[in-house]
Design a protein that fits this description.
Order of helices and strands: EHEHHEHEHHE
Radius of gyration: 15 Å
Strand content: 15-25%
Number of strands: 5
Shape: globular
Largest sheet: 5 strands, parallel
Structural class: alpha/beta
Distance between the termini: 24 Å
């Protein structure tokens, strides 16, 4: 039923909660886990000049570390894993990756924003992924 499971990562503890569910799901189905980090272009574009390149490099390094942490946990469980770091808007890139790679389910955990924070940030990434994805999205609280 599930051959490819996507776990978007931002390197936070929320990803650990998502992996607590994604790894057994992948194990039960013999699925490959995909770890995706998106370098948020909005953050990169907010910086200018020399600082821009430093910010992008820093975000890419954070992304490499985040997908490596997911890969380590998945490989320890004896499962196949694919990792990727992309640039763009996180929710848009997550949905696009899922479509391009034939993902069967997305497993992610909301950051735990308060209702006020969600309004201020125009919702959360997980809200927008849930609204836009063409595959099931498991949200782990």
């Amino acid at each position: 039923m599930y051959d490819h499971i996507l776990v978007p990562t931002d390197g936070s503890e929320a990803v650990d909660r998502a992996l607590d569910h994604a790894i057994p799901l992948a194990s039960d189905h013999g699925a490959t886990v995909h770890a995706l980090y998106v370098v948020d272009r909005r953050v990169a574009n907010a910086s200018s000049g020399d600082l821009h390149d430093e910010v992008v490099t820093d975000l890419e390094e954070q992304g490499d570390a985040a997908v490596a942490a997911v890969a380590e946990r998945v490989e320890e469980a004896g499962l196949d894993v694919e990792t990727q770091v992309r640039h763009g808007t996180p929710d848009t890139e997550i949905v696009a990756y899922a479509e391009e790679e034939g993902i069967d389910v997305i497993v992610m955990s909301p950051e735990g924003k308060s209702p006020r924070e969600r309004i201020r940030s125009l919702g959360s990434v997980s809200d927008r992924v849930t609204d836009d994805a063409t595959v099931p999205v498991f949200l782990i609280k």
